[in-house]
Design goal:
The chain is of the alpha/beta class. It has 2 domains: 5-171, VC0802-like, CATH 3.30.2130; 183-393, HUPs (Rossmann fold, 3-Layer(aba) Sandwich). The chain has helices at residues 20-35, 61-68, 88-102, 125-139, 193-203, 221-238, 249-258, 264-283, 302-309, 325-335, 338-341, 348-351, 363-371, 377-386; strands at residues 5-9, 42-47, 50-55, 76-83, 109-116, 144-145, 152-158, 163-166, 170-171, 183-187, 207-214, 241-247, 288-289, 316-317, 389-393. Helix 9 links the parallel strand 13 and strand 14. The longest helix is centred in the last third of the chain and has 20 residues, at 264-283. It starts with a strand and ends with a strand. 40% of the residues are buried. It binds adenosine-5'-triphosphate and magnesium ion (MG). Adenosine-5'-triphosphate is lined by residues 187-194, 211-213, 272, 290-292, 297, 299-300, 347-349.
Amino acid sequence: MLYQSFLIKYAEIGTKGKNRFLFEDALVSHICHALKRVDGRFDVTKDAGRIYVTALTDYDYEDVVEALKMVFGIAWICPMFQTGEKDFELLKRQTVDYLAQVYPDRHKTFKVVARRADKRYPVPSEQMNRDLGEAILDAYPEMRVNVHEPDILLRFEVRANVVNIYSEMIPGPGGMPVGTNGKALLLLSGGIDSPVAGYMVARRGVKIDAVYFHAPPYTSERAKQKVVDLAKLVARYSGPVDLHVVNFTEIQMTIYEKCPHEELTIIMRRYMMRIAERIAAETGSLALVTGESIGQVASQTVQSLAATNDVCSLPVFRPVIAFDKQEIIDISEKIGTYETSILPYEDCCTIFVAKHPVTKPVLKAIRKSEEKLAGMIEELVETAVSAREVIRCG
Ligand code: ATP
Ligand code: MG
């Protein structure tokens, strides 16, 4: 076990004024939760603008870093050596040992940067830089100082009771701790875009629930399982996701029977939004999230998006709205949802899709078509909402 602990640096949450402790506490709790997935026991503590993860047992370094990389709010993960000793001569020896352990090959350039948060420490920062540098050069003549572009930037943080020594900084996912920014309901299909959209909104600190519109027997159990799997993958970052599975078959069939086929997709999308708003109201979500992107398909032209949005009263977040497909794919690969998203199971929207769907729907015409559903659709919506299945994912 090379490192006994990690220094966790956060960026944005440091700027939240007197609510800062709420952000820090949320971050500590998410770190604890993420570490439950790895072997070993850990102590997670906060201390004056710093969060420390300390290993209490043996652990696998890669597993811990991998888990921490999924915790929103972490800007940097710094594996470190921590010493409680105030004796400067001892600190020099510990520094020399640190380099021996962390850098078996010491043909490298370095720079020492010491900062005293605790000014009572007897050695001023400038002198720490010089003296520690000298101690390193004495021990390892093969090393060289380079203050502009060092291979190793060796940092010392002198705090009230400890000195932190670290030189590795691994980027975290950024963002804010989940749950510090309310809750939203993600419309999660089996595609590439919606899991990415959920990830992006969760990264801003928003807790995520999800809704999936399932149309058995036109869509199979395997298609549903794929959405459950995607929800679990998103949940690795966002924390547990409640997935609401709505049976959409009757509604879809009714629209298919009563409305012009070229308007089917838009009308279906409007009913998805209406039902999503009902579920959001019941479960405390304050916004909807979709994976829509301008121009991607007929139902995502600006006119179509406007026609879909027409039925919504909640804010609809569309984080990938202006992304090219390839940019969305890049994110889905990075977050690990791509392989699951491309599994070839049918989607409820594709089965009834018209050969020539409208790309420039006229709102008045769409509303008129929907009038043909009056008297029967209300009850179908009611049943779909009340009979939904809720699956806890993650
Ligand atoms: P994705 O790649 O995310 O599946 P898509 O390419 O299938 O999207 P559309 O079918 O137009 O695109 O759907 C646009 C958005 O509507 C999706 O990103 C998702 O948020 C929502 N959506 C579509 N179908 C469903 C469904 N069956 N259940 C839940 N949400 C859906
Ligand atoms: Mg899409």
